[in-house]
Design brief:
2 domains, 13 strands, Metallo-beta-lactamase, Chain A, alpha/beta, 380 residues, five-stranded mixed β-sheet, eight-stranded mixed β-sheet, binds zinc ion
């Protein structure tokens, strides 16, 4: 996510040791008044020997932070995505250090959103020889000023603007949380989100974007006798350059934000191509599939559900565009409350955010698509 994609505080340390299949994060410094409810805590779970997923115990956050998968190869770890903040990345590195003394040899970012790239600099600081990799489309987008303005840069003025954005969002959520007529789940949701965002603002401090130096267009193999990682670009979807990673020996597929659960993100998405890319995901013979956010999936159920959702949006937007309606009018006419209910699992807070995170942005994209206008990353 764009400006929502920046991150918070606490350091995570291995809790149960390297031999277990589960690592939990602890607040840092010790005694810090931070709990999992504040968000931005990673837990490590072993998906297969030598393959670890670092994810939030709570899948949905107003300020998202993406899953990170670590694959141990003979000469070091390959990470798929870098963590949502410098502090988040350092926590993951600490947990990896508890597993093995091997270096991090490569980090692949799935796409340009901050909650996947903001950890790169911290990883490079710890491991100076690390290869940083993305699709060439993602590398181009990360250097586009329309996108770069959302990223911490180390430049005081622009980073102050990001900080003010976060503070403004925190203040708005606190105001909403103080409205006595708001239903209870929305009150507590706003309170929790304000707290999360505040931590995120702290965690982001000192960060500055690094654009991966190494790119690929279609395919790049990070070979290894036991755990090769095949990087692929399957087509536009959530962004213009979504990479996926395939572990052919483990039958594990890492999708980045082509798949996000429980609520997909629609900002700057490419609805028509997204449908095609989802079908291509199904051609992999996976036993486990790791989305960009949310828990591990074992079958194609969620792919089909998301594909149907995109098809529905496109089918409803296209005739309204053909009839000459404005974007505002299309937004008013295409309601997706049943789908919001389904994706949120009936949770009123999540359901209220489905509109903001999915319905409005994907309708805007479908509107452009139907008119034949370009969809530009960071272009609103
Ligand atoms: Zn994300």
């Amino acid at each position: 996510m764009r400006n929502k994609a920046l991150c918070a505080l606490v350091l995570l340390l291995p809790l149960t040791g390297c031999g277990g299949s589960h690592l939990a994060s602890l607040p840092y410094p010790p005694g810090a008044n931070v709990t999992p409810a504040d968000g931005y805590l990673y837990e490590g779970t072993r998906l297969a020997p030598g393959v670890w997923l670092f994810a939030s115990p709570e899948p949905f956050h107003v300020q998202p932070y993406g899953n990170v998968t670590a694959v141990e190869q003979a000469d070091g770890f390959v990470l798929f995505d870098s963590g949502g903040t410098p502090a988040g990345a350092r926590r993951i590195l600490d947990m990896l250090a508890g597993l093995s003394s091997k270096p991090v040899k490569a980090v692949v970012v799935s796409h340009w959103h901050g909650d996947h790239v903001n950890g790169l600099r911290a990883i490079r600081e710890r491991w100076p020889k690390v290869r940083l990799i993305a699709t060439n489309a993602t590398r181009r987008t990360l250097t586009d000023p329309r996108v770069a303005r959302f990223m911490p840069s180390g430049d005081t003025a622009s980073d102050d603007a990001i900080r003010r954005n976060i503070e403004g969002a925190v203040a708005r959520m606190r105001t909403r949380a103080a409205q006595p007529d708001l239903p209870e789940p929305l009150l507590t949701g706003n309170e929790r989100a304000a707290r999360e965002l505040e931590h995120y603002g702290h965690e982001l401090q000192g960060g500055a974007l690094l654009v991966p130096e190494e790119g690929f267009d279609e395919r790049l193999l990070l070979d290894d006798p036991d755990r090769p990682v095949e990087l692929r670009f399957l087509g536009q979807a959530n962004t213009d350059g979504d990479a996926v990673a395939w572990l052919p020996k483990q039958h594990i597929l890492l999708t980045g934000d082509i798949l996000v659960a429980p609520i997909p993100y629609g900002y700057g998405g490419y609805p028509r191509e997204w449908e095609t890319t989802l079908q291509r995901l199904k051609s992999f013979d996976f036993k486990a599939m790791v989305p960009g956010h949310g828990p591990v999936m074992r079958d194609s159920t969620y792919i089909d559900r998301l594909s149907a959702l995109i098809a529905e949006v496109r089918a409803r937007v296209a005739p309204l565009v053909a009839a000459g309606l404005s974007l505002d009018d299309v937004q008013k006419q295409v309601e997706l409350s049943a789908q919001a209910q389904m994706f949120s699992g009936g949770d009123p807070w999540r359901s209220s955010l489905f509109d903001q995170y999915w319905r409005q942005p994907i309708i805007a994209s479908a509107f452009k698509e139907a008119k034949g206008d370009p969809i530009i990353q960071g272009g609103g």
